[in-house]
Amino acid sequence: MNQTILFSEKEREALAQELPCVVRGRDRDADTVVTVGEGASCVRIGGGHFALMAGPCSVESEDQVMRIAAAVKAAGANLLRGGAFKPRTSPYAFQGLGEEGLDLLVRAKAATGLPIVSEIMNEKYLDLFLEKVDLIQIGSRNMQNFDLLKALSRVRKPVLLKRGFSNTVKEWLLSAEYLLSGGNDQVILCERGIRSFEPLTRNSLDLSIVPLVKDLSHLPVIVDPSHATGRAELVPGLSLAAVAAGADGLLIEVHDDPANARSDGRQSILPETFAVLARKVEAIRSIL
Amino acid sequence: MNQTILFSEKEREALAQELPCVVRGRDRDADTVVTVGEGASCVRIGGGHFALMAGPCSVESEDQVMRIAAAVKAAGANLLRGGAFKPRTSPYAFQGLGEEGLDLLVRAKAATGLPIVSEIMNEKYLDLFLEKVDLIQIGSRNMQNFDLLKALSRVRKPVLLKRGFSNTVKEWLLSAEYLLSGGNDQVILCERGIRSFEPLTRNSLDLSIVPLVKDLSHLPVIVDPSHATGRAELVPGLSLAAVAAGADGLLIEVHDDPANARSDGRQSILPETFAVLARKVEAIRSIL
Amino acid sequence: MNQTILFSEKEREALAQELPCVVRGRDRDADTVVTVGEGASCVRIGGGHFALMAGPCSVESEDQVMRIAAAVKAAGANLLRGGAFKPRTSPYAFQGLGEEGLDLLVRAKAATGLPIVSEIMNEKYLDLFLEKVDLIQIGSRNMQNFDLLKALSRVRKPVLLKRGFSNTVKEWLLSAEYLLSGGNDQVILCERGIRSFEPLTRNSLDLSIVPLVKDLSHLPVIVDPSHATGRAELVPGLSLAAVAAGADGLLIEVHDDPANARSDGRQSILPETFAVLARKVEAIRSIL
Amino acid sequence: MNQTILFSEKEREALAQELPCVVRGRDRDADTVVTVGEGASCVRIGGGHFALMAGPCSVESEDQVMRIAAAVKAAGANLLRGGAFKPRTSPYAFQGLGEEGLDLLVRAKAATGLPIVSEIMNEKYLDLFLEKVDLIQIGSRNMQNFDLLKALSRVRKPVLLKRGFSNTVKEWLLSAEYLLSGGNDQVILCERGIRSFEPLTRNSLDLSIVPLVKDLSHLPVIVDPSHATGRAELVPGLSLAAVAAGADGLLIEVHDDPANARSDGRQSILPETFAVLARKVEAIRSIL
Known about the structure:
Four copies of one chain form a homotetramer. The first copy, chain A, is an alpha/beta fold. Chain A has ten helices and ten strands. Chain A has an eight-stranded parallel sheet. In chain A, helix 7 links the parallel strand 8 and strand 9. In chain A, helix 2 runs parallel beside helix 3 and helix 9 packs parallel to helix 10. Chains B and D meet through loops of B and loops of D.
């Protein structure tokens, strides 16, 4: 008797009809390993390789990003996150440093060797991202921006596809299918919490979908506990939970002065908290 | 004793701080009237003027759009809807006729005099839409595509802003604030149902927000009962309900051969059903 | 071509298998008409007969309930609502007058002739309710209190079954099936809004389910716009919307001093607002 | 700089006003340790003591419950779960063995020494539960059955209070407040997933609330991954995730013939799967 068959043959075939590139099949049973960055500093994600992505919500200044990049590198991160073009609910909120922000990330990469992940909001900046960024993030609000998906399906650069905060797993995988069917199979899925009726957390992180999607698809699945909870104090516990649930990586907001962060300070953890967390992540991975 | 004060002075001031252009204030208490189209065939919406927008989900062929445009015009519609660029969940679904679809809508407008509403998905087609479309729709999935909002805030063309299917009223109004604060005050809000746990309908249409948003803001609010329910049989009842709740207009999918429609046939009503509905809408409006 | 077939034969048969008593079938196609109260003052609901139920959230004093009962009667209500046993989220909130509250309702009934609807929370008070109440309400939080459903299935007294605030339509009908299969076919369904992510209203009222459930089942369906919105100012618009959507009745909280009501004052409308509303309800019903 | 302050002083005070017994305060800062069962076989839960509750969804026969009880005991469980009175969505589903089911659990307890947890649905069976059950469960659908809460607040027997599947954390704690303020402070909270829009899992398990509630309240918090996911294959991963997030225990459905279980077979894991899981739970606990 086997309890590892999550989807029946029939269910899996129906899903494979709709999602021929994303669902595991006879031709494509092995886990996809995504390679981010080049040369010596490249990072492999999936198939047993773990990604620990960390950095500030927004790039704010050269000093800030260099300091935080060095700190997360020292603590064990293998990718640097940082927002340059920021999707903001209000037109009056800080909209990011734009191209200048990307340049500062490039300098932090030169100093630390960490490949860069940053969010693209608009197809018109694609050349800029292809030049400067190692892993291009499609944010939650753009998961169903189909023209952006089509544009990214045609490039040779890995993509981090966040789940929309109210999208079903199937819709998420269909957005990944846009990327794969268009020719880009270097795709990492990222769960970041769904919207619910609960006001005490920013979102509700449903970790059930980690083992579910890993069973269904060959793509790596990582978790963003910062946006999922919206509260720094919950990030360590949820990070460990994500690892225990089988995630292939974490995407964590770290800031050394959260009270003065220009965005998302409430959910950013300190570098020293991150360092402790990184060690516990390793300990849990060694058990699984 | 007055039961018309929905928000207290204090609540309204707090909201007006965040939404200075969208919330009613001393300078801007009167309802905004949006003018769509030009010359004799222009249509006014808001401030007591009602919009009855109808047409096929997708433009499929010249014959199809001309037939349906004539039918909805005869039944009392004053705007023609039709999708040319289609946001589709699956990469394998019909993606719309694109520019050719807009051209067919222009021909239908020439034949019927009905101004056109159609959805834009990408800033790069803005010139095309400015030339050919009278009311540019921002769809539910693009409500928080902030670059698209910024681009549309700089043009002189009315915008129909649909609510995201899992966005709060405040987020919706903040997206409208992007448009108004950028310089475009010809904005119509459109409710189209929110995602819920109920599988028997496509979405859950919360009409409560119609009187709520009309109290809070000076912008016109219309309702799309087709996407809200996903079932043609529910469209007439919900259309009348929207009018009774105070909506400034309706956006309804009509098709004369729903079984063979290339998209959303299940939620498209027949022209003859639409004609009966249009008469009842008038009857209810005369009571209110 | 027929657009009135909401469920296909196959869908309907599958539902009829699970819900043999509740779903329309060959034997039971006609609308159920529920009779509330006895003798001259009895009220029929369903099959074209409309129920206008109004009164205070909680019975607070003899004076209060007599005043409000007279006012809603004069305005056109045909049933009196009033809570005696109150389900309260906090143990420190007013829990209702209990049996004394029921006695005060009985006096109001004697004075006005209006039959009484009140909520039961516990099987142990069933004899009391059978003696004093004309229509026994099962509240939203007890929709899946299966022992209470079983107890009420065995009595000869009509039941008002509210939908749970996060229950699917199918779960709601299965709870009705408990009543009907147990022997009580005098059941009225009441929609009162579902919980969503929106903080500006107490719940989200999905009126789509009114025509949907009326197509599927022979039971009458009424709407409670007071709990659905949580804001008095939204009650009139939503009441008219419910009627336009095809509801067989309304359940409305009315209070003549909402600011000092012991519960739900924020969502109670004034008797004079109710009187205006009652006339508009009639006008809309005459159109449909 | 301290990242352990989840709620500000002001927030905590506001919550303590509404929840004086449940929220940590000056008088009640230490974790509550709940003692289940008596004598040598009693189990302590909370304050570092972990509960591993396992057993069948429903008690089906003496043979079945004895076999499964022995298996989960051998694998490391320290409490036996089993349903005798079953809340079932459909009146036609198996409703449980009732009192006979409790008697079979008592025999399994005699054989294994494991204290018993079972769900009560109706105040009228309270004496029966006080006699036969060690930990009385209030199920998700009864979290706001206030009369049942009041009845259980007056007894000397620990209570397991499941969160309603669409209730906020605050509503859940207010239901616990009913128990504590009424005199029963032996309360364990149990998260079991919330209802969402996702059809591929039965519920969405939001583990964020585990560290959040443990910070706010002194009560132990455990997790039920079986109802949370509805799929046996997801139970091990989610169980480990719950432990990593800080849960004080797990409540897991185990069956040795899931395909023929009379309820919830799809979400029941095999005894051998449970045994492997129990060892991993210990390994993760040793890291934290």
